[in-house]
Amino acid sequence: MTLTAETTLKGIAIAMGAITALMATIELQRAFEEESAERPAVVSENPLKTTLQRCRTLTAQDLETDTRCQAAWAENRRRFFGRPSNNREAE
Fold it and tell me: Are 2 and 34 found together in one domain?
Protein backbone atom coordinates (compact mmCIF):
# COMPACT_ATOMS: atom_id res chain seq x y z
CA MET A 1 0.00 0.00 0.00
CA THR A 2 1.45 3.31 -1.01
CA LEU A 3 0.95 6.49 0.89
CA THR A 4 -0.92 8.82 -1.40
CA ALA A 5 -2.40 12.22 -0.77
CA GLU A 6 -5.88 10.70 -0.65
CA THR A 7 -5.04 8.14 2.07
CA THR A 8 -3.14 10.77 4.05
CA LEU A 9 -6.16 13.09 3.99
CA LYS A 10 -8.48 10.25 5.02
CA GLY A 11 -6.21 9.45 7.94
CA ILE A 12 -6.09 13.07 9.02
CA ALA A 13 -9.89 13.34 8.76
CA ILE A 14 -10.39 10.21 10.87
CA ALA A 15 -7.90 11.46 13.49
CA MET A 16 -9.61 14.86 13.65
CA GLY A 17 -13.00 13.20 14.04
CA ALA A 18 -11.70 11.06 16.88
CA ILE A 19 -10.15 14.08 18.61
CA THR A 20 -13.41 16.03 18.22
CA ALA A 21 -15.41 13.17 19.73
CA LEU A 22 -12.97 12.93 22.63
CA MET A 23 -13.15 16.66 23.30
CA ALA A 24 -16.96 16.60 23.21
CA THR A 25 -17.00 13.71 25.68
CA ILE A 26 -14.68 15.55 28.05
CA GLU A 27 -16.79 18.71 27.84
CA LEU A 28 -20.02 16.80 28.54
CA GLN A 29 -18.40 15.11 31.54
CA ARG A 30 -17.37 18.51 32.94
CA ALA A 31 -20.87 19.86 32.42
CA PHE A 32 -22.41 16.91 34.29
CA GLU A 33 -19.94 17.31 37.16
CA GLU A 34 -20.67 21.04 37.47
CA GLU A 35 -24.40 20.42 37.38
CA SER A 36 -24.25 17.81 40.13
CA ALA A 37 -22.01 20.05 42.25
CA GLU A 38 -24.46 22.95 41.94
CA ARG A 39 -27.48 20.85 42.86
CA PRO A 40 -28.26 21.20 46.57
CA ALA A 41 -28.64 18.12 48.68
CA VAL A 42 -32.26 17.05 48.96
CA VAL A 43 -33.51 17.32 52.50
CA SER A 44 -36.37 14.97 53.02
CA GLU A 45 -39.13 15.64 55.51
CA ASN A 46 -39.86 11.92 55.53
CA PRO A 47 -37.83 10.37 58.36
CA LEU A 48 -38.22 6.86 56.90
CA LYS A 49 -36.71 7.98 53.59
CA THR A 50 -33.85 9.72 55.40
CA THR A 51 -33.13 6.61 57.44
CA LEU A 52 -33.22 4.38 54.35
CA GLN A 53 -30.77 6.69 52.56
CA ARG A 54 -28.38 6.36 55.51
CA CYS A 55 -28.86 2.59 55.60
CA ARG A 56 -27.95 2.27 51.92
CA THR A 57 -24.44 3.50 52.74
CA LEU A 58 -23.80 0.79 55.34
CA THR A 59 -22.01 -2.47 54.70
CA ALA A 60 -23.79 -5.82 55.04
CA GLN A 61 -22.08 -6.48 58.37
CA ASP A 62 -23.20 -3.13 59.76
CA LEU A 63 -26.76 -3.71 58.58
CA GLU A 64 -26.95 -6.96 60.54
CA THR A 65 -26.40 -5.12 63.82
CA ASP A 66 -28.23 -1.85 63.10
CA THR A 67 -31.73 -2.29 64.53
CA ARG A 68 -32.93 1.10 63.26
CA CYS A 69 -32.12 0.08 59.69
CA GLN A 70 -33.77 -3.29 60.11
CA ALA A 71 -36.92 -1.59 61.43
CA ALA A 72 -36.86 0.99 58.62
CA TRP A 73 -36.54 -1.71 55.93
CA ALA A 74 -39.36 -3.70 57.56
CA GLU A 75 -41.59 -0.59 57.57
CA ASN A 76 -40.68 0.13 53.95
CA ARG A 77 -41.62 -3.43 52.92
CA ARG A 78 -44.88 -3.16 54.90
CA ARG A 79 -45.80 0.07 53.10
CA PHE A 80 -44.80 -1.32 49.70
CA PHE A 81 -46.92 -4.44 50.04
CA GLY A 82 -49.81 -2.50 51.63
CA ARG A 83 -49.92 -4.55 54.79
CA PRO A 84 -51.54 -3.04 57.88
CA SER A 85 -49.27 -1.72 60.60
CA ASN A 86 -48.72 -3.79 63.73
CA ASN A 87 -48.52 -0.58 65.76
CA ARG A 88 -52.06 0.91 65.81
CA GLU A 89 -50.99 3.83 68.06
CA ALA A 90 -48.55 5.15 65.46
CA GLU A 91 -51.30 5.61 62.84
Answer: yes
